[in-house]
Amino acid sequence: MSWLLLMFGLAALAAGADLLVRGASGLALSLGLTPLVVGLTVVAFGTSAPEMAVSVGAVLNGQTGIAMGNVVGSNILNVLLILGVSAMITPLLVDRQIVRQEVPVMIGASVLLLVLAQDGRLSMAEGAVLAALMVAYTAFVVLQARRHSARNLDSASTEAAPADPIGTGRLSRQLLLLAAGLGLLVLGSSWLVDGAVSLARDFGLSEVVIGLTIVAAGTSMPELAASIAAAVRGQRDIAVGNVVGSNTFNILGCLGLSGLVSGGAGLEVSPALLRFDIWVMLAAAFACLPVFFSGRKIARWEGGLFVGYLVAYLAYLVLAHQAHDVLPMFSSTMMSFIAPLTVVTLVVVMLPRPART
Known about the structure:
The protein is mainly alpha-helical and 357 residues long. Helix content is 82%, strand content 2%. The chain has helices spanning 2-30, 35-47, 49-60, 64-89, 96-116, 124-151, 153-159, 168-202, 207-232, 236-261, 271-293, 300-322, 327-350, and strands spanning 92-93, 121-122, 267-268, 297-298. The strands form two sheets. It has a two-stranded antiparallel ribbon. It has a two-stranded antiparallel sheet with strand order 2-3. Helix 8 (168-202) runs antiparallel to helix 9 (207-232). The radius of gyration is 20 Å and the shape is globular.
């Protein structure tokens, strides 16, 4: 039964991702919004619905380790796996707004989580702060897009919008595609997570490890499927905006709501997360800056580098589970290797590139 859930979940995710991207790109044109804004809001929030459902459900069931591990692990996978694989399929062009605004917001949310988690717990009040910031950020992005659209109404009507008015029938069809896509993503993710967690428990994995790996991978499948589908369809703004927006929503929205429903106990943050995994999440967020600055494009080799970082991180998790006594040494080795390599990468990709003749 577990394997059947896994297979049905993957099939539902693939179908849902295609419907979601088709509906989102059409909705962007219909409402005068750019694909980037739709990727940062509608697609990002929709593909983060599984993280929200799993995290809140885990908190209500008293499994806060899964809730925290799910968000941290999903954010790591979103950057290293999803952007990496998407860029390896086709180089991703990065909008200037992502470099100047959205990535700094994602980094800021990651830093804020690290600060709030230092006492080993995310309280109900801190969850309320995160949720309020999510509402404010979403409102700001939408209002900013509307102001930009109003200032460029003439050019937008000729370049970004269809010549004929959009009828309610076509708009309804796009909304139906969005709803069907989101529904399949949530359902597929639920099946995938249920099957994966059942298998993981058979191997004796802890809640935190399950959250960081199996659950995080399962709930990140919608982002992976949606971003790959968007990249293949040429909607590269949606592919990148989906990842950045999802990471911000995971921290501010998922953990914010999870903190609110946790009551007075709050969310427990395990020492392992504080010692290593949250720092890896923060490093992955910072790694976006040099890559995005390199001509505002994620090249195939940069995507491969992200995937390489992910392999190293997963190797750490496996070794830590099998031999906890070597965890401190391996953790120090990983940090001393990843940090210099990231600095070197930053310097290389930001060097001026010779003009082509």
